[in-house]
């Protein structure tokens, strides 16, 4: 789950933000005001970029790189909200479905980074509605590296170029597997600013 998750997440972030020009504009403005147009982002800038953070959380909600976490096995009978999980059962946690659950998220299928502004929900394994890196003892050990790299790469790409789609339309369909990838690769052209 290493570089592939990172690449998948970066491609999904770029696809969603290009698909949502308003979000792209907001991210661009925040970067211009905080880091300065065209400048590369430093690690210390990340905490001052709440909208970019929200874009990444929202992408993880809709497109977790690994849709089913590593399987778990129940070490004893467990009762969870009225369902008995018997000892020895293999349990798959479908975080793709959790991210689109109507009882948890308003307009679950819409890309709305704003839902995370001012919210304490984070992806570090404490908020079970958003666990793109898993949770508990088997949580992804690459999380600290991955989130830094994602913010630095995505932020620098947005801040250093204007992006336009190669074709007319963008296909947002997904291809399911051990990791979820875009069914059609993203084709975009960087325009120097
Ligand atoms: C955006 C990038 C990444 C995402 C979304 C991601 C996601 C995940 C997920 C969901 C799991 C399973 C956790 C669970 O079942 O509770 C996992 C496990 C793991 N990840 Fe990542 N990962 C990413 C990047 C990385 C990187 C950069 C590294 C290493 C440098 C890494 C190393 C690992 C390892 C070794 C495991 C297995 C841990 C275990 O079984 O105890 N991951 N990752």
Instruction: Indicate the proportion of strand residues.
Output: 5-15%
Q: Using the coordinates shown, work out and report the CATH topology.
A: Cytochrome p450
Give the N-terminus to C-terminus distance in angstroms: 34 Å
- What would CATH call the architecture? Orthogonal Bundle
User: What order do the SSEs take from the amino end to the carboxyl end, as H and E?
Assistant: HHHEEEEHHEEEE
Poorly predicted segments: none
Essential attributes:
193 residues; two-stranded antiparallel sheet; 34% helix; alpha+beta
Describe this structure in words.
With 193 residues, the chain is an alpha+beta fold. The protein has a single domain, classed as Orthogonal Bundle (Cytochrome p450), CATH 1.10.630. Helix content is 34%, strand content 12%. It is built from 5 helices and 8 strands; from the N terminus they run αααββββααββββ. The protein has a two-stranded antiparallel sheet. A two-stranded antiparallel ribbon has the order 2-3. A two-stranded antiparallel ribbon has the order 5-8. α1 packs across α3 and α2 runs antiparallel to α3. The chain is elongated, with a radius of gyration of 18 Å. The protein starts with a helix and ends with a strand. The model has no long low-confidence stretch (mean pLDDT 90). Protoporphyrin IX containing FE binds next to α1 and α5. Belongs to the cytochrome P450 family. This is Cytochrome P450. GO terms for molecular function: heme binding; iron ion binding; monooxygenase activity; oxidoreductase activity, acting on paired donors, with incorporation or reduction of molecular oxygen. Keywords: Heme, Iron, Metal-binding, Monooxygenase, Oxidoreductase. Its cofactor is heme.
């Amino acid at each position: 789950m290493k570089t592939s998750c990172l690449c998948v997440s970066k491609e999904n972030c770029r696809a969603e933000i290009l698909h949502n020009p308003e979000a792209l504009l907001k991210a661009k403005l925040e970067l211009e005001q905080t880091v300065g147009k065209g400048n590369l982002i430093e690690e210390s800038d990340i905490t001052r970029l709440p909208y970019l953070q929200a874009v990444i959380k929202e992408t993880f909600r809709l497109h977790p790189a690994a849709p089913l976490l590593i399987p778990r096995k129940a070490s004893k009978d467990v009762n969870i909200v009225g369902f008995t999980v018997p000892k020895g059962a293999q349990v798959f946690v479908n975080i793709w479905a959790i991210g689109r659950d109507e009882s948890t998220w308003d307009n679950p299928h819409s890309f709305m980074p704003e839902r995370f502004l001012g919210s304490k929900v984070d992806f570090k394994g404490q908020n079970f509605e958003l666990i793109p890196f898993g949770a508990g003892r088997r949580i992804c050990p690459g999380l600290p590296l991955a989130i830094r790299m994602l913010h630095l790469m995505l932020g620098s790409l947005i801040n250093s170029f204007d992006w336009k789609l190669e074709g007319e339309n963008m296909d947002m369909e997904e291809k399911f597997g051990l990791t979820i990838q875009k069914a059609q690769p993203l084709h975009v052209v960087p325009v120097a600013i």
